[in-house]
Fold each of these.
Amino acid sequence: MAEIILTNANIVLEDEVIDGTIVFASGEIKSVERGRSALPHALDMEGDFIAPGLIEMHTDNMEKHFVPRPGVFWPDPLAAAVAHDAQMVAAGVTTVYDSICAGFVSKEKDFRRTIFPSVMKAVASGMESGAFRIDHRIHIRCELTGDDVVSEIEPWVGSPLVRLGSLMDHTPGQRQWRNLEDLKRYTVGSGEKSLDEHERDVLARMETGPINCARNWPLVVEMFASRGIPIATHDDTTEEDVIAGVASGAVISEFPTTIEAAAAAHRYGLATIAGAPNVVRGGSHSGGVSAADLAKHSLLDGLSSDYVPASLMQAVLTLVRRDGVSLPAAMGMVTWRVADMLHLSDRGRLDVGQQADIIRFRDAGGTPIIRGVWHKGERAF
Ligand SMILES: [Fe+2]
């Protein structure tokens, strides 16, 4: 493969931005240097930023393509996965952990049970056939309050694509739904349920949730741990939540809902992840702590696009422009620090020998414009 030279670029390194030139070939980075290249085949980046390709560990975006309208299941799963892949690369992502949910909790979300096997098969097929522009892995999100979560994940957890597992407990009255008014606003306010349905559902879930969770938690932990799959806790709200995760071998606390929980996560050695939409919107959609506050207290290690792929780069520029975070520090939250928490040593940094996953972007008054993406050294967008 021919050498590619990107010059006249603002290259985002771990602790500085340099005016320089990056060279890559055979899928890996060969050099990163200050100054410009005069070679005729060097590509002029016109002063745009060059940064590592983004690493996304928790996105529900695949779902929107499998179920584009309520009750509509797209008949070609690979086509749905390829459309999702295109959206991720257009957002600057070069490694994505597609998150799929297991564990039935409500009839509104039952479509997740239906699409689980077809997402697994489509991602395997897309990776094998070279249909994707970027790397895909699977993050299995386990709703432990569901009665069938163990049997649902059992046939799939041994797939080499499964590289992250998370433990969720959405019992009303704790964690994400500690404040029942937030839950009411989320389900009744959004039109998902009538007030009557909501109240019946809350009572039922408060009754069965703790029983199912106590039974499923150790079984699911064992399924991940015995295969060396990293574990994340979800919506930690109190120090006790964090301690329960630590006791299960968790290494990531995703979406801690309070400063107290994020601080405990750091004390116990867990990395923290918050939603990039939370940064962009200036707060959580479900009543949790604002991600910008976590960043202010140095309690934020990484960001996830969650339900809006383009939010990653937008959150980076928001942290820089609104909150005074340096560009390298903000960029680290969507690249090298996420690589570290997922134990990915071959990507996430613009270092010699790293996989050539690279993005070119421009800051248009706070709006990120992705102008190029290379994955394993090949132009992907
Ligand atoms: Fe949650």
Note: The pocket of fe (ii) ion is lined by residues 170, 176, 234-235 (CB under 6 Å).
Amino acid sequence: MLLPVHDDTHVTPTEATSTAVALTLHQLMEGVVLAAAYVAGGVVGLIAALFLTAHTVVETAAVGTAYVVAGQYKRGGIAVVFMQTVYVIAAVIAFRSALAVPPAAEHITTAIVGSVLLIVGIHSCRCVIDDSISYS
Ligand SMILES: [Zn+2]
């Protein structure tokens, strides 16, 4: 994901907040994908869940760093906690919704989940690479 923060030494509070908002919405989707990974189960689900967790840590650190550079320590702490809360709540809601799927629709759901995991996996690789370039 291309972040609005390009230079570590000049981050305004507004830029830090826009980064936090963008990544919170992004992690809302990733929480849903995490639930999908659990539902998919097996090695694919486990790898996807582990990868998403590592990826989320990188994104959360990026937001924390943006606030620290902007000198907004308290807001940074709040943003980090808020992002993680949104991620977990999205995962729980999606997981409960997935459990409500009738057994007959399970194969179709598994196929859709597999496709989503593939797309998000590719997207996540790009996120981590972009984050590493932006914050290293
Ligand atoms: Zn992400």
Note: The two ends are 15 Å apart (CA to CA).
